[in-house]
Amino acid sequence: MPAAKSAPVIVWFRTDLRLSDHVALHAASESGAPIVCVFILDEDSAALKPPRARPLGGASKWWLAQSLRALDASLKKLGQTLVLRLGASADVLAKLAKETDAASVYCIGIEIASERKLEADVSSALEKVGIELNVFPSDLLVPPSRVRNAEGRGMRVFTLFWKRVLSTGDPSKPLPAPKKLAPGPKIKSDDLKSWNLEPTKPDWAGGLRETWTPGEAAAQERLKHFLDHDIKSYATDRDRPDRDGTSRLSPHLRFGEISPRQIWYAANFASARKPAIQSDVVKFMSEVGWREFSRHLLHDHPNLAEKNLQGSFDEFPWKRDAKALRAWQRGLTGYPIVDAGMRELWHTGIMHNRVRMVVASFLVKHLLIDWRDGEKWFWDTLVDADPGSNPASWQWVAGSGADAAPYFRVFNPILQGEKFDPDGAYVSKWIPELAKLPPKYVHQPWEATPMELAAAGVTLGKNYPEPIVDHKMGRERALAAYKKTRS
């Protein structure tokens, strides 16, 4: 039943911080009713507390603050403001509905168990005050209910999953941003600064500010630039951390500043215009597909960040080594490609995807440290820390997940560096103490002569560490542990 035009509609923003292709906002706009836009920082709802869910990490909180400012600025151009409220979503929305005499609440659904439970709790609370919660389809390209195997379960092999998604055809076309929104009653809002989402003492977010411009406008600009310029060599350059060959859209997707549908149609339009980039577009869209696959896995396995998908790994002999874990976190392992990646992560809140695989493999295989320890660190330091992609990718590397990498694949950090950063440009950028080494030594500085090290200003063990584990020994130890587990 459409809302009465005299009574406002509340649009509850969640992980969908944009105006375009926002089905709930579009429906509210089409109703003609006055609109109240609200975002709730929910740290109180039982549905969102561990083990059902977990709070945002530090880098994600920083991004959220910027994204909320950007959304509020966009709403102001339409005569609206974003109301900020802190508390349990069910209580906040029920109180806000009574405060505004709202007719209904609109939101986009989230296909995650904890979020579905939250939606149920909100619906129940609103029913008690005579208000209906209208939940619109989620941001996934295809809902999990449409991608099932013969037994009715979720698919565990990515290639088969993505083939099934592609076989469903194009998703519905993205919706334009509303041209106008009827203003609702003026409502008191929390001060964003009072939420303490941004670090102050110490302020470690300088590198994030240098690197990123959160918000819907920046997301659309980034997509356009990528499809106009960088896509043409994506299939090869995506593996080169020394080149700007990736889309860098992941944090924008994480916070819903852009939708998968918008990327789908923009990429396919670009491909139709430029046949030469079709293979690059196909590869790029398969990476968007991995996000989709990971979210489907999370739908079927809500404890994806805690429990091995393959039960045989429950007895894996992980090592508790706080010193080695700390060296890995700080980028002081003595393996340049690993350390460069970890330092890039700390400074920018992101890490090149190829390097992510290398540093993850190093932690779980060379050091035999539990993948969950690495996943938690990424959760706190990544601006694109996605509840599906982050644990699914860590389990893939560890070998414990769906469609996992073979247990005997142990990335050689030296060869990976030489192959994908052949001139050492990436390492030199993030490890300036190695910048003067000849390229042939930058990925294995211990092979340089004492004279060459001295000329480059490198003193192993002092201004750059020696390797904390021997590659050959680490690989053999990992293979023995994996073999024992599999038997």
Task: Please explain how this structure is put together.
It is a single chain. This protein has 487 residues and is mostly helical. The protein folds into 3 domains: 9-139, HUPs (Rossmann fold, 3-Layer(aba) Sandwich); 140-172 and 215-300, Serine Threonine Protein Phosphatase 5, Tetratricopeptide repeat; 311-486, DNA Cyclobutane Dipyrimidine Photolyase, subunit A, domain 3. Helix content is 46%, strand content 6%. The chain has a 5-stranded parallel sheet, with helices on both faces. It is globular, with a radius of gyration of 24 Å. The model has no long low-confidence stretch (mean pLDDT 95).
Record the SSE blueprint.
Blueprint: E1 9-13, H1 23-31, E2 35-41, H2 58-76, E3 82-86, H3 89-100, E4 104-108, H4 113-128, E5 132-136, H5 158-167, H6 206-211, H7 216-228, H8 234-237, H9 250-254, H10 260-273, H11 278-300, H12 322-330, H13 336-348, H14 353-366, H15 371-381, H16 389-398, H17 413-420, H18 425-430, H19 450-455, H20 471-486
Percentage of residues assigned to helices: 40-55%
At CATH's second level, what is the architecture of the largest domain? Orthogonal Bundle
Number of helices: 20
Low-confidence stretches: none
Oligomer: single chain
Give the strand content: 5-15%
Q: What is the succession of H and E elements?
A: EHEHEHEHEHHHHHHHHHHHHHHHH
The Rg value, from CA coordinates, equals 24 Å
- How far apart, in Å, are the first and last alpha carbons? 60 Å
Give the overall shape: globular
The CATH topology annotation of the largest domain reads as DNA Cyclobutane Dipyrimidine Photolyase, subunit A, domain 3
Indicate the CATH class of the largest domain: Mainly Alpha
> Kindly state the mean pLDDT as a whole number?
95
Largest sheet: 5 strands, parallel
